[in-house]
Amino acid sequence: MKRSTKLSIFLGITAISLSSQSFSDELDNNISNETIEQNYFNNAQNPGSVMFNPPEGWHLADPKALPPSVKLMVVGQSASSFPPSINLGTEKFDGNLKKYLNMIKSINESQGSDWKDLGTIRTQAGTASLSQVDAKTEWGEIRMMHVILVRETTAYILTAAALKEEFSKFYKDFFKSMRSLRFNKDVYDMIGSSARQNVLKQENDKLKKAWQAFYKKARSLCDEKSPETKVEKIFASKEFQEQYWTPFKEMISTDYKDMGKGWQKQLLNQIQNELMTQTK
Predict the structure, then answer these.
(1) Which one, of 157, 148, 150, lies nearest residue 94 by Cα?
(2) Could you give the strand order of the β-sheet that contains 114-123, starting from the edge strand earlier in sequence?
(3) What local confidence, expressed as pLDDT, does residue 185 receive?
(4) Which end of the chain is more exposed for a tag (fewer CB within 10 A), N or C?
(5) Is 75 helix (H, G, I), strand (E, B) or coil?
């Protein structure tokens, strides 16, 4: 990739951090936040997807409003005209981390920004570079922190931004999200506690066994000819719903309330598909 293209991509990722005010305005009128949240968890299911945990109470920006290089952006609340934000960007890069940092240093120097290499940070995806840059904007002086990880032929850039004078207020939230940077495999990875993961897997196993026994008994009594329709009808039956599926959903809603409705919906959809596939 040519240096001019890399410059354009990195500046695009940086610029989106400096546009969090416009995204905050959009969120006030956002009528599909639940859909956006669902898309977030859907993306987390893709093998190799890189994700991070947004701070509690922050809002997801509509991915359609983001440039192609920015995969995810969340915006927080602030009394100032420039709200805090975190965004995750990627770009193709044929080189190592040192080479990428030299490029970033050169870009910021050419823009007259104050860039500092802060060393490294340990994330769930591995040890990454941590750097900081201060830039003057129409909203005042903005501070950004970049967590950068280079894997194979891709650079991953997680950028936290806020007014410089307010940055310390969000320091804890920023670092918690930065350290959560990871490559997800499934919804279970979204649960921070391994003990809670194991409990959920055990409950899921119990449900699967109950479903297998219920389906084996009910299939001979179901007059549907199509296997797919038969499975759907048995799953939707009042007896299965009341005895097994509804109690399971209530357990998820209560015991994993902190994971959010988007995660709960994604998990239930995944488990339902697994149950119905077992019989085909």
Answers:
(1) 150
(2) 59-60, 70-75, 85-92, 154-163, 140-151, 126-137, 114-123
(3) 65
(4) C
(5) strand
* C-alpha count within 13 angstroms, C-beta hemisphere, residue 62: 14
DSSP state of 146: E
Ranges of H-type helices in the chain: 3-17, 20-28, 33-44, 97-110, 171-179, 194-218, 227-235, 238-240, 246-255, 261-278
**CB 181, CB 149: distance < 8 Å:** yes
Q: Consecutive 10-residue runs of the chain (280 residues): their mean pLDDT?
A: 45 54 50 61 63 87 83 87 91 91 88 90 94 89 94 92 94 95 79 90 96 90 79 93 97 93 87 83
Q: Residue 34: what pLDDT?
A: 62
pLDDT at 171: 94
Q: Which residues contact 21 (CB under 8 A, 6 or more apart)?
A: 81, 82, 83, 139
Check residue 11 and give its pLDDT.
Answer: 47
Distance CA 84, CA 112 (A): 22
pLDDT value of residue 244: 97
Map residue 260 onto helix, strand or coil. coil
For residues 13 and 68, give the distance between their C-alpha atoms in angstroms, rounded to a whole number.
10
